[in-house]
Design brief:
The complex is a heterotrimer of chains A (about 100), B (about 220) and C (about 450). Chain A is about 75% helix and about 0% strand. Chain A contains three helices and no strands. The mean pLDDT of chain A is about 85. In chain B, helix 1 packs antiparallel against helix 2 and helix 2 packs antiparallel against helix 3. The N and C termini of chain B lie far apart (about 55 Å). With about 450 residues, chain C is an all-alpha fold. The radius of gyration of chain C is 25 Å and the shape is globular. Classes of the chains: A mainly alpha (about 100), B mainly alpha (about 220), C mainly alpha (about 450). Chains in contact: A-B, B-C. At the A-B interface, helix 1, helix 2 and helix 3 of A face helix 1, helix 2, helix 3, helix 4 and helix 5 of B.
């Protein structure tokens, strides 16, 4: 694996993280925000796997961590999308801007 | 051989980043979800390049097979009439973009290139297959494993409760047209709870809802 | 295949090709063989189904093209090729084009881990079983794309139904296969097949059983329950009757395929039949010993290998042919069961389908996993693993252990089946009573 230095993988992961960050903060659609968060979680996963591969390849800790992140992401997606559907049912919209009945 | 790996890495990286950019920039939300799937697939390829075979398969099974399909499903269930004038981004998207670019260029890249990562020059190819992972889950990581199981259960119950319709509104069978009309007329005088709220600005023009498709068949169970 | 290519390229031609070139060429050859054979015999499957279903419905079926209609699939293929490719004006053009490809391509990948005979497998992945189902879950994305891009409500309804069904039934399918992973300690399909040698009793449980290649998992209570659950789930995954609600032609035209014609429609059709074939093949592989059968063990022992350099390569070929024959025979038998079910059963309603999957199949497969764990404990564990209770009357022989395990798991599985079936029947009766009471928008009373 000396062909691809660790820095390249980290650059890729951080780029993906920033793209996901931008998406999560600036899209109006609730499901789009969730997609941004999924991208960020995946970027973190790439980091974990890369560090496992390049610095501690004799243990499985990195992979285990990535698996836990996937589990949490799946749980988060299920609850988040259920919330999107519940919001749509009440407000007939999924624009997070419009859901502001708690604004003082 | 090195060059082959580098080319593969480059193609994978371009796929991941390009697809991710399309996810956050494309107008049509279904297209965004499809680009998200492409991005997940690229990440699975990257895991294969990093010798994390099991994780790549789990990525395909869970992210593409479950999460992405769930996203597509949710998008289709919450479809609204597409208004081409409505912006897809918040008004403050420029400042968000600035923050994201700064985070990347001013924080992450310098950190990555100035830190001395103590990498193995030629790491031994260990194999993290299902057997090794299973032993790790059952020994060193037993408690996190159990907590993850509880978390999944809680998420399952929570998602069902949040998304479930009211018990009174659930129907045990598909209605005939006459019954449907009668029911709608019966409901008409008493407006639904939603209109007690001030109507949201962006969608005030949407007509009173036809009962959503998922109410019509008793598929909730 | 690697050895053969290596021999020809480097020894015969003296090209000194690097390792990865040899590997690439050998894999490409295997892939070419698989891709050439798979669609052709799937074409034959359509003919097989049409003839069989015609027999059940007291018809003749296609018998004009070629001898007894054997060339009918080719005629159908020519017809598909020459049809006009119609794309609706309001369709999402690119997604509409991509959808059949996304549906059909992953199905072909599933051939990669299917063992055809002794040492005959394209890639013996250590995670083969998981790979099989991970790849198959990609095609659901293709179905959603097709349903949405067609811009047709029948297509969208069909896609929604298909995805809800496939995603729900993936869970019992995977859970019911877990017992094989537990018993063999491996997810490699080759290892799972090899563990099923023996005669009624697997040689992994009792080593001195004569090896006739008949120690199939389906002969144990654990395996039998898992087989029943898996086959039902496979019917739902392959969208076969009685679970064909995604394309219920009397309700929603053809589901997600409504707006497709010509070659794109053919791709959907092909993907569906390949998927059905593969699901039958995986059932045969995991529960019915795959390529195992009488005679294989003897042929393998005579053949040329690293352990047995004096063997005759003819026996390698014979063992491979016999193994492929056994696998295909079992697969076609299961496909016939699918066809017979199509001829015999009406279609389920979507809520019946969901109730059956979530309230009956999933709990049943969970209990089956418990039985599998008990099976392993009783047949293999002793005081060292904290299971000293098995040695209350001295060290039991393997056969006694096997008998105890058989009895215990049989009792557990039958009791679980009986209990769950009763619960579901009570639920059903309550629903029917609520319906008969004229409940319009009333849900059935919750039993405390």
């Amino acid at each position: 694996m000396s062909a691809v230095p660790l820095e390249w993988v980290l650059m890729l992961a951080s780029g993906l993280f920033c793209v996901g960050f931008f998406g999560a903060l600036s899209r109006r659609h609730a499901v789009s925000m969730l997609m941004g968060i999924e991208l960020m979680l995946n970027a973190v996963n790439i980091n974990l796997v890369a560090f496992w591969r390049y610095t501690q390849p004799d243990e499985v800790g990195g992979i285990i961590f990535a698996l836990f992140v996937i589990v949490v992401a799946a749980a988060e997606a299920a609850v988040g999308l259920a919330m999107a559907i519940a919001i749509y049912r009440t407000w007939q919209t999924v624009n997070v801007d419009s859901v502001d009945s708690l604004r003082g | 051989m090195d060059l082959v790996v580098q080319i593969m890495f480059g193609v994978t990286g371009l796929l991941i980043l390009g697809a991710a950019l399309m996810v956050v920039s494309v107008r049509n939300i279904i297209h965004a979800a499809l680009w998200l799937i492409a991005c997940f697939f690229g990440i699975a390829m990257l895991y294969l390049l990093l010798h994390a075979e099991f994780l790549a398969i789990v990525q395909v099974l869970l992210y593409i097979g479950a999460v992405a399909v769930l996203v597509l499903f949710a998008v289709m269930l919450t479809r609204q009439i597409d208004d081409p004038d409505e912006p897809v981004l918040f008004q403050r998207w420029r400042s968000t973009l600035l923050i994201a670019v700064l985070l990347f260029a001013a924080v992450l890249v310098p950190t990555i290139y100035t830190h001395d990562w103590q990498t193995f020059t030629d790491p031994q190819p260990t194999f993290a297959g299902p057997r090794e992972l299973g032993f790790a889950f059952m020994n060193a990581y037993l408690l996190p494993f159990q907590i993850a199981a509880v978390l999944l259960l809680a998420a399952l119950v929570g998602a069902i409760i949040i998304a479930m319709e009211d018990q009174e509104q659930r129907r045990v069978r598909v209605l005939t047209l006459a019954e449907e009309v009668a029911l709608r007329r019966e409901r008409e005088p008493s407006p639904p709870a939603r209109s007690a709220h001030p109507q949201p600005t962006s969608s005030s023009t949407t007509p009173p809802p036809v009962p959503p498709a998922h109410e019509q068949a008793g598929e909730g169970a | 295949m690697y050895d053969v290519v290596d021999f020809i390229l480097n020894t015969q031609l003296g090209l000194n090709s690097p390792d990865w070139v040899v590997m690439l060429i050998s894999h490409l050859i295997v892939v070419a063989i698989l891709f050439a054979i798979a669609p052709v015999q799937v074409l034959f499957l359509t003919y097989y189904e049409r003839r069989a279903i015609a027999r059940m419905q007291d018809r003749v079926g296609p018998n004009r093209v070629g001898y007894e209609g054997l060339l009918q699939p080719i005629a159908d293929g020519v017809k598909m090729f020459t049809k006009e490719d119609i794309v609706p004006v309001s369709a999402d053009q690119r997604v509409h084009l991509l959808a059949p490809i996304v549906t059909a391509a992953p199905v072909m990948y599933m051939f990669a881990v299917l063992p055809w005979g002794p040492n005959m497998i394209a890639v013996d992945l250590p995670t083969g079983l998981l790979f099989f189902f991970a790849i198959s879950s990609i095609s659901t994305v293709g179905l959603l794309m097709a349903g949405w891009a067609s811009n047709n409500k029948f297509a969208l309804l069909g896609a929604m139904r298909a995805v809800a069904q496939v995603v729900s039934y993936e869970i019992p399918a995977l859970l019911s296969l877990l017992f094989a992973v537990m018993l063999t300690g491996s997810m490699s399909l080759m290892a799972i097949v090899e563990a099923q040698s023996g005669l009624f009793i697997s040689t992994t449980d009792v080593p001195n059983i004569p090896d006739l290649g008949l120690g199939w998992f389906v002969f144990t209570p654990v395996g039998f329950l898992a087989f029943v659950c898996f086959f039902i789930a496979a019917l739902a995954e392959g969208e076969r009757t009685p679970f064909d609600i995604p394309e219920a032609d009397s309700e929603i035209v053809a589901g997600y395929m409504t707006e497709y014609s010509g070659m794109k429609f053919a791709l959907f059709y092909l993907a569906q039949y390949i998927l059905n074939f593969l699901l039958c093949a995986i059932t045969a592989t995991i529960f019915f010993g795959g390529w195992q059968g009488p005679g294989i063990a003897w042929l393998v022992s005579q053949s040329l290998s690293a352990d047995n350099p004096a063997g005759n390569p003819v026996y390698n070929v014979l063992a491979g042919m016999l193994g492929t024959f056994y696998l295909l025979a079992k697969t076609y038998a299961f496909f016939f069961v699918m066809v017979a079910l199509r001829g015999a059963f009406p279609r389920l309603r979507i809520d019946q389908l969901m109730n059956f999957g979530w309230k009956f199949l999933i709990p049943l497969t969970m209990i089956n996993i418990l039985s599998a764990a008990l099976w392993i404990a009783i047949t293999r564990w002793g005081t060292a693993q904290g299971f000293g209770i098995i040695e209350f009357a001295g060290e039991p022989s393997n056969l006694v252990r096997w008998l105890i395990a058989f009895a215990v798991t049989l009792v557990i599985n039958v009791a679980a089946y009986w209990f769950l079936a009763r619960l579901n029947i009570q639920d059903h009766v309550a629903r029917q009573a609520a319906l008969a009471a004229g409940g319009l928008a009333v849900s059935p009373p919750r039993s405390a």
